Amino acid sequence: MTQAFENSRRNFIKGASLAGFAGMLGHSAPAATPPAGRFAKNMIFLVADGMGTGTLSLAHYWHLRHAGSALNWMQLLERPGVRRALQGTASASSPVTDSAAAGSAWGCGQRINNGAINVNPKGESLEPIFVRAKKAGKVTGCVSTCRITHATPAAFVANVAHRDLEDDIALQYLERGVDVLMGGGRRHFKSEARDLIPAFASKGYAISATLGDLRKLSGEGGPLLGLYSEDHLPYALDRANDASLAVIPGLEVMFEAALKRLSGNKAGFVLQVEAGRIDHAGHVNDGAAILHEQLEFDRCIETALEFCDRHPDTLLVVTTDHGTGGCQLNGTGKSYNGSGAALDRLNSVTASLEAIAREVGRVGSLDTAQFKLVTGIDLPEAKVAAFNAQLAEQMDYPAGALADCFQAELEAATAVGWTSHNHTAEHVELAAIGPGANGIPAYIENYQLHGLLCRALEI
Fold first, then answer.
1. What pLDDT digit, counting tens, does each position of 162-172 carry?
2. In the chain, what are the domain boundaries?
3. Were 183 and a residue from 144, 178, 202, 456 both cysteine, which residue would form a disulfide, CB within 3.0 to 4.6 Å?
4. Entry pTM
């Protein structure tokens, strides 16, 4: 691994790695050098994991209708100096990427096979961007609504042959000194087999397990390990409507805390922030859940821009790794004039399909009255009876089973439709502002972004 890292570093210093690999794939590398004196001290990299353009549009039209303004993402595009790009997302093994390959493209500058993290198709480990940043004296951080050892945050830090090796990823976070880690995934740090938390504490990390802990630490700097769930964090929709989840911080709170802890470093910082459960809601085909995940992410853009206004030496990148589910707000009603009312009906939903499925598993059946209470939707009794009769067969993916069984009723109420439960091959949005953003072309392949980021950060 050490030799591969050294080879990778020499290639990047020569500027050959990005250009050479782009040439192999039939693309030329984009111009990447910022103007003299315009290097970025800091970088904030915001990822709306699994966000296709349909999800962005759904949230935008909901926000216009119910908040009276455009999404922060749309307002960002109107700012002077912003660069907007269409981004290709293919991996080395497929036109449809997974998050490991897509994140690794940003993390190491090469196309990677689906499932791998910063390990190329030859089996070579490539140096992740956070390792480079640490060598340059910068502090680093990852924040996610997923397990913090999940593919997207790991892709900026780790090297593993397969993304499922999350225990190994947690150990690499410790060994590579990621300064701030916040999200879910406690089980990969503390289990019957081992407990890494004392090792983090011995290296000076503050340890946080609840929103209350985090608030007490909010005025402090230095390393932080915040683990707020055994698995992924609950959906934003459920956190807003279930009082028992009030102890879990949302993405904006974690992001703000990370900025406070990292921004005091004289050499700057690199911070990745992931709204990972947009992807999960897309997999399930849950229109209300994906809407609120996207809205929570969008509020982070405002926080990031406020920070950039105070710290103009900060590069902000706002993007996604791929689409998931093919989410679209469809036309409904005469002359499609029913789509606005369908957006209104999304406001009646107070629980995700995941939360509903959990309750189904607890009581052993789907209750139509309870379903209507949390969604506003009447279900046909015959379909409910059929669903309950097959419940044992559906419990390996119960939320998805709910979406499939009652697809017609859900879409009739919300006008949100889907193409599958899978990732999509669609090109995705990218916006950037700050030092180095000027080097981003109107069309970019995901692996080409790495070289631009490294040059902008001068690492």
1. 999 999 999 99
2. 2-327+421-457, 333-417
3. 144
4. 0.91
